[in-house]
Fold this protein.
Amino acid sequence: MRFAEEVLLLLLDEKTGYFIPIPEWKMSCVLAGSVLIDLSLENRVDSDLETLTLLDPTPTGDELLDPVLEEIAQETQVHSPQYWVERIARRSDEISTMALDRLTKLGILNADSGGFWSLSSRVAHSRRYPTVDGKTGEEIKSRIMRALLDDEIPDPRDFAIIGLMNSCGGIRAMLEPEEYELAEERIELFSGLDLIGRTIGAAVRSSYQPPASIRSVQRPSLPVAGLFSFLLSRTFRSGNIPKFMAEKSKELGPVFQINAPGRKLVVLASAEMNRWVGHKGRLYLRTRDYLEGFQKEWGTSRSIASLDGADHFRMRKAVQAGNSRAVVEDRVGEVLALGRRTFASWEIGKVVPGEMSCQRLVGEQISQLSVSVEPSEILDDLLKFEYRALLVHLYRLMPRFMLRTPAMKRAHARVLELYAQIHASHTPAQREGKRRDLVDDLMALHQSDPQFLPETDLGFSFIAPIIAGHYLGSAMSFAIYELLKNPDLLDRITAEADALFADRDPVGADLNQSAFDVTRRFVMETLRLYPVVPIHLRTAMNAFEVEGMEIPAYSTVLAAFSSVHYDEKHFKDPDTFDIDRYAPPRNEHRQASGVYVPFGVGTHMCGGARWTELQMAVNLLLIARHLELEMVPADYKLKINPLPKLSPNRKFRFRVARHRYPIDKAVTAAA
């Protein structure tokens, strides 16, 4: 294992899912120093306090070390270790990304979709690392802590690690104050015992990044998009927010400001900005501010959507199993049965409202899978109250009294009924012998730590997946529109459906990628063109600099992550619905991180992404198997409502022309 990998493992905080915060410049220098130490141990460079000398330019064969070695070999002058530490520090993102990828491939770290990191269960349990040759090595944090606190003499290699970590304040950050006081003499002793480690450590300690005010005295001002430019934009008027943001990014750059009535919004819109939010957003961006009023209407003070940092990581881990793709796979029979029950209500020849019908379809399924209730009669009230609360609190398009009308009061009362219904159905006796669901996980967390998840926050946590189902319903309605608009793709999806349902209903084991590859790519393209949540709204809790421009603390930031979906640099003919962009050799979604991001970026990336993709695919296959649909009117052209989320407008409707395969026979066969 290389020094950069061990440094990251030492700094991993298993409670927060991220790394102990070290000043960014110091951390960059430590990663640079770690590569130089490894090159020294490989006999490629030598160093003293004054000079760092190239001994051998022959590549080591290690992708983590060789780019730095090549850079040193190309330099004609001899420089000090501090010079090289500061120069290589510019590669710190590349070094850390590569090191984390290697640790993941080795089975040492697990990466959560939201950018959180944790030790794999095997390493966390055994405190041993697997290695390439099948041997194991002791987990470094246990090894170093024992050397510092238990009077154990460390391995000579660990002297360099301790010195490097001490040079940036990492050891102090790892230990409790009383532990550091006890170990301080040993830390200083060990830091001086390895010559190369002492030399590089001194270079790291001495490296200096001038304050921002000195580095960039005259920063460029943020380009501004005024209200008039919105009104002139045909794209904006059409409701296509992702495409509008892409156009503005192309015109103004990846960072610009929107001057809206009463507020100024800083927009981050590019693949590079998506990567920045993913890597560094947790240090600068806060979520809770814009959700406070919305959550209060539901009787809660906080939720997984508004939590940041360690609390968000803890909640995310608690609900991970209940939001996973495995839930859909294990209970696919229920998904199919509920889908058919909904289809039975779509009578032949009857015009069906597109989005509302899809929201009911998906809402019934998610309610069963996540909270194990059938809130059929409550779903519409829940949707109405959520819609109004978003317009009042998030978008400020309605006054608050609009949530106090008689209709809204009745809807809110039904929401409280749903809270009680879910709670009452999850006693030990009621749940005996049933598959564990999301509410079971939430109840277990509440019982184990009622301060972290109190009763006052339970209700909203129960219905959060049903609310998420409203968003998935909107995505399904976009998918049905594209299904009817592209009869060639409908034929291919129908062929996949007929093959899957040929002998019996598919079970979880049948839902592999090869069985419905066309449907899977169809879902991916739907989510690219129509990301139902196209932006993330955040507050800058710390000032930061991007693209040479400073964003002050307290700024309102829009992470327009989905704008990249309409960037022709990444997606050929981005306005075209083209599922082949996700197949070899094109693989446009894999060309770089931050390019295909339908579920958001950063720590609040949707934890149910794989569930969503599978549920959409299963429903599309079920529709293709049973129903022949037609658009009403036949020449309908999609119009988008942008608020409070992207959705087809109310004029999108369809009818069932005929049943391809009788629904009642399928129900009988399944029974």
